Every structure is written in structure tokens, then in C-alpha cells.
Amino acid sequence: MAKTKYPNVYLDNKGQYYYLVELGHDLITGRRIQKKGRRDAQHNKFASAHEAYKEAVRIKNEYQERNGFANYSLTYDDFLDDFYIPSYKSDVENSTFKSRQSTFKHLKKWFGAKKLRDIRATDCEKFRVFLLGKSGYSQGFASLIYCMFRNTLDYAVRMDFLIKNPSRRTKTINKGKSTVAFWTKSEFEKVLSVIYTKDYYQHMCFVILYLYFTCGMRVSEGLALTYDDIDFEHHRLKIHKTLEMKNKNDYELKPYTKTINGIRTISLDNDTIRILKNWKKDQEKHGVHNFIMSYDDTPMSRTTIPLIVKRFAKLAGVKPIQAKGLRHSSVSYLINEFNADVLTISRRLGHSSPEITLKYYAHLWPRNDETIADKMEGNINFKSATKNQLNFTGNQNIRSVK
């Protein structure tokens, strides 16, 4: 058997062309359905590979119209609601699923009424161009929407609703360059200086900002912290869970972090231990004994963190940053104040590898090439030639002016 330039078409040892096509899977047994043939609809042997290919396409289309789809007229909207979204919801965290609801709305608005099988590469390209232009979306958000769209069609192919994904004939939308604003040490000090810690609520804000800045936790990791996670004797903090919250009375502590490597134990300095002990005493006066980032022993909503950041940034006269900017601030602090190496930071952040750390934070490391440049001076020794030893008379043979 030898392959030809046409998909699903082969040449046997006797020089006879034939096709072998995959028609999907049996909906009951799950077995692959294949069809092999050496003759066309008029029972004539194939004279060329192209003839075999045309017959293979005809056979495949005919099968799909009869059996290949649960609903040949299925719209993209119904496909999302009945198939893709339920599957996607079962595969991701609730927080991730909630964050993708707006993405699904955009997809339905553009393709909802269109039959799934009628979506062409040109339709996908028009959508891609719209996202990059007239939509007004940031490139990062446009990238997210189009990536999700491509994934829905990949799923349609896997489930035998489509033969192939037409969007794969178009270019992806890259995320573009995104920079996350962060606080320097001096900016952070200004923020801490305007917080009145004798006020119970502000004392909590002080502790929240201090822990995120010095420990570099993800927002949901910090919100899930309880006093059981702190080893006051050995100055260690265990980060091993995340908070998923609907409201203050409906929440769940997930016994894992974003990645398996996110489960980690980090060391705490004496200042942080002292701050935590003082906050613990203040909380106990108000009947709080469990959650660290809490004033009433129920978890703090993640939407509150950016409000705290914004409020005290304005009061301190420093630039406002996103909540995740505190994680970037922590990395910058460790690098610039302690010259921390990438492996140490990677472990402290809970990354799967130093490569991930470098991918997102490489720009925070200083160039460190000034000393190299200084050492280069006078290191290469040579004497200039005293006469021309090159026999060259081309157009570029211009002598230096003496």
C-alpha cells in the first residue's frame, strides 16, 4: 500500500487505486466506522487517484447526510447549549466557567443562528477581522474569544458533528504584549504609611496588602488562608487551597491550587510573623478565629481586594494596580532587594518550572551587564595593520581618508 497526494486515497501493489475513509464512530458501540472501495458509483475501477478521491468525498458526504450527525440542521447556538457548554463546564473550575460566560455570549451573537455545518473558513476570517478591528476589544480579549471559538469547533469535529474545523484555516489571534503594573518597594511603603492600623477594618487591609506583597500568592490562594496554615514556631506558611465563593454564606475551600506545583510551603520573616500575631489578637477580640483575611470569620470576596488596592493607592498618591499586580510587586521586590534567583522565585510563586517564571517575569530582572561591559574594556588586544594586504578593486574599495 502506498499513499497518494490525495487524502484517504492509496495505491496497492497491483497499481490499483482505492479509498479508505473514516466515517466517524458508532453512537452505540463507539467503534470506528470505515469504508473501503475500488470502484465508483457506476462500478468502474478508478483510473486515477483523483477519481478515487472524488468518490471518497461523495461517500463521506452521503454518509454524513444520512447518519453522521445527531442533527444535520443543528445551529451553532443549540450546539453550544446542548453539547459544548455542558462538556466544558464539567472539565473546568466553576470560577473559570463563570469567567467565560461573556465569551459564549459573543460567540452566540455572531454565529448563533447559523447552522453548524454551514460555517465556512470565510465566516471565521470575518469574525477574526472583526475582533481585531471594529469590535474595540483589547487584543488579549479578542485572542481569548477566538481561541474559545476554535475550541468549540474542535469539539464538534471530535464528536463527529463536523469533518474538519474551518477556523483552523485562519490565523490565530495572539495575546499581544501585556504589561502588569506593580508597586516598587518605595510605593508600597507609601501605601502602608497611610493605613491606620488601630482601626479594625484598616488593620485587616494592612495585613492583606502586606501578605500579598511579601508572599506573592494568587488572590484566591490568599483568601483561602486560615491560621491552621501558619507554623508560627518555624516561620512557615502552607499554601495548598483556593477559595471559590458565590457569596459570604455560600463558598467552598478547594483542596488544591491552580496547578499541582502551586501547593507549596514558603518561609516567613520575623516581621511578617509579628504582623500576623498582632492581627490574630485583634481578630480574636472580634470573635474571629479562622480566616486570616477576614473581619467576621467568613472569607473576603475577591472583588474586595482590588477595591482595597485602589482606595489606599489613591490615598498614598501612587499608581493604582490590579490585584494580580501585587504578585508582580512581590517578584520585583525579591529581585531588586535580595537579588533572588529564578528558581527560588519559581518555587515561592508555585510555578511548575523556572521557565514559566521567566516567561512572565523575565523583564523584572536587571540586565546585570554593566560590569561585563566594564571588564570588556582593554580585554581584546591587537595592533592595526601598517599596510594594505588585500588585493581588491571592487566598487567598495574606498580608502580611508588619512
TrEMBL record:
The keyword Ribonucleoprotein does not apply. Signal peptide: none annotated. This is Site-specific integrase. InterPro entries: DNA_brk_join_enz, Integrase-like_cat_sf, Integrase_catalytic, Integrase_recombinase_N, Integrase_SAM-like_N, Tyrosine_recombinase_XerCD. PROSITE patterns: TYR_RECOMBINASE. The lineage of its organism: Bacteria, Bacillati, Bacillota, Bacilli, Lactobacillales. It comes from the Bacteria. Belongs to the 'phage' integrase family. The keyword Transcription regulation does not apply. Residues 178-374 form the Tyr recombinase domain. Keywords: DNA integration, DNA recombination, DNA-binding.
